[in-house]
Amino acid sequence: MIEGPDIKKAFLRISSHLHHTPVYTSKYFDTKYGASFFFKCENFQKTGSFKARGALNSVWQLSSEEKQRGVATHSSGNHGQALAWAARQSLIKAYIIMPDNAPWVKVEAVRSYGAEVIFCESNLKAREEKLEEVSAKTGAVYIPPYNYYHTIEGQATAALELLHEVPPLDYLLTPVGGGGLLSGSALSTHYFSTLTKVIGCEPADADDAWQSFHQKKLVEQVAPRTIADGLRTSLGDITFGFIIQHVHDIWRASEDAIITSMKEVWERMKLVIEPSAALPLACIRENPSFFKGQRVGIILSGGNVDLGELPF
Amino acid sequence: MIEGPDIKKAFLRISSHLHHTPVYTSKYFDTKYGASFFFKCENFQKTGSFKARGALNSVWQLSSEEKQRGVATHSSGNHGQALAWAARQSLIKAYIIMPDNAPWVKVEAVRSYGAEVIFCESNLKAREEKLEEVSAKTGAVYIPPYNYYHTIEGQATAALELLHEVPPLDYLLTPVGGGGLLSGSALSTHYFSTLTKVIGCEPADADDAWQSFHQKKLVEQVAPRTIADGLRTSLGDITFGFIIQHVHDIWRASEDAIITSMKEVWERMKLVIEPSAALPLACIRENPSFFKGQRVGIILSGGNVDLGELPF
How many CB atoms lie within 10 A of CB B278? Predict the structure, then answer.
């Protein structure tokens, strides 16, 4: 279980080492959809995404014996960067297992924080095997990207900050991949803003969370085909549990809507966001009148894009 | 002449209708160049550039008889958008003459503010002729993009805000095209931060300001060849006068440095800036140790880029 005080404690533990990211508004999107949007800019967060929150909260709850052994994870990108950065804050060693097709900019970023990158094939089995191998050899402690209480508590602090800063929200929208950000956001609204409904936003071509939510059982993601590289993973049992309990709905968006919405944010808000961060606006784009007259929070989850591989 | 109180009055006149744009810092650039940088984010300004300041300050000093006739200008982009927007704030008509090779995104933006766009060939003579024709027909008042006291007073307010917000700056760097932003910034430092040295940053392949500054006479720009579409114009006699009097130096940067620096800001700061806005960092890139230990203000002048025409 994660209780309200756990989230507050996580906030106190990590916030002075992170950016208190700004909340932006946009006359353009407000006019377009007739709503009031509040964008929590986690693209400006340390390491370029909200993942720094969960990683730091996890690393700082390790024992000193565990810290001596270092930390390890597998990650297609943002969690890897975040853990590498969090490990450096604690002066401990980090081993990051990355798929060999990970965006170059993310691999470089992980290395720039002093972590060791170990490549493997781009499938869950290969990643897990490589992780076990590395942990066995080095003794490093595995810090999971989402299916882990300390990670979820950390991710919950983004919504906590947003809810404190803006007028009461009718809705809060976040992308959903493994479900760490969505679970954390749903827990924060559950404890601190009861009337706010949370909607998870997922690529239609990687819709395991939507399937799981509606079938009320954990459905694994097979062969995801989406540009939103942060959202190709499956939910875990812990995140699924929180999502079933506290999330209002899960919506899906097409690849076209994702790309167009991402471009719109770049052009209109002058913010570099990654495809995954565009999911909430992509879902709104496909339901343009749903939020009329409502106050809607949106977590712009990250801004790590390979500029050499833009879809437009 | 423009005195200190003129700039303060311009600030009081326009600031409540504009964004008080944030000042960002960047650990990445601080570490890279050993300096402390303060980035004034005019890419977040209304209409996507600092030009909204000068345009609004100019429009609001028209008589009501002039306002009835409307306003007109020729502009390759940002001033056109800014004047269209400023005119709409005053509910008056705007005629914007644009070269037929202007970036599409800028043409659309001008139209979205309700202004009438009139195309002409992409040279100064054609623009000026078309402007005279439109003014003769409609009676619209010409609002110049830079060589005009009210415009310069308005542009000066960006530096005014920056200087009030950060510790005393050793240097302040801005791009220079027609010289409105550079003149205004130099006047603001002259009156409000005497020890701050102002450096204008210009593309090497459109270096009329550098030529004019060093030859101490106004040299016209012929055949500029730079991706920084906001900086292809020549200085005017008024901006040249202020620049000679109050600017410390003018530096030049290669096209490569401009493109690389722009990309660096997108990747590292997650900010969409246009090529012109990258000029200060491009100049620093080519003089990487010059600012070691110094506090350096940089005006990120705008963020209007055609995402379909990126140079990377």
Answer: 30
Tell me the angle at which helices A149-165 and A180-192 cross, rounded to the nearest 10 degrees.
50
Cβ B180 vs Cβ B146: under 8 Å: yes
* ipTM of model: 0.93
d(CA A193, CA A295): 13
pLDDT given at position A70: 98
Domain that holds residue A129: 52-142
Do residues B103 and B162 both lie within one domain? Answer: no
Long-range contacts of A113-121 (CB under 8 A, 24+ apart): A113/A47, A113/A81, A113/A84, A113/A85, A113/A87, A113/A88, A114/A84, A114/A87, A114/A88, A115/A80, A115/A83, A115/A84, A115/A87, A115/A88, A117/A80, A120/A74
Same domain, residue pair A132 and A34: no
Same domain, residue pair A11 and A89 = no
Q: Are residues A237 and A204 in the same domain?
A: yes
Same domain? For A207 and A286 the reply is: yes
Contact in structure between B271 and B41 (CB atoms under 8 Å): yes
Q: Does B266 touch chain A (CB under 8 A)?
A: yes
A28 and B CB contact within 8 Å: no
CB pairs under 8 A between A and B: 40
d(C-alpha B229, C-alpha A210), whole Å:
46
User: Which of A93, A115, A117, A48 shows the shortest CA–CA distance to A277?
Assistant: A48
Query: Considering the entire predicted model, what is its pTM?
Result: 0.94
Let me know whether B138 and B240 are in one domain.
no
CATH of the domain at A98: 3.40.50.1100
pLDDT > 90: percent of chain B: 90
Q: Which of A142, A166, A194 is the last residue of a domain?
A: A142
A174 and A253 co-located in one domain: yes
> In this predicted model, what pLDDT tens digit does every residue of B206-262 receive, in sequence order?
999 999 999 999 999 988 999 998 999 999 999 999 999 999 999 999 999 999 999
pLDDT tier at B99 (50, 70, 90 boundaries)?
A: confident
Q: Which of residues 78-137 of B touch A (CB under 8 A)?
A: 105
Question: With contacts defined as CB-CB under 8 Å, which chain B residues touch A263?
Answer: 307
A308 in contact with B, Cβ within 8 Å: yes
Task: Decide: helix, strand or coil at residue B97.
Answer: strand
State the pairing for strand pair B23-24/B36-41. antiparallel
Per-residue pLDDT tens digits for A9-61: 999 999 999 999 999 999 999 999 999 999 999 999 999 999 999 999 999 99
In three-state secondary structure terms, A71 is: strand
CB A264, CB A216: distance < 8 Å:
no
User: Would you place residue B124 in the very low, low, confident or very high pLDDT band (cuts 50, 70, 90)?
Assistant: confident
Q: How many domains does chain B have?
A: 2
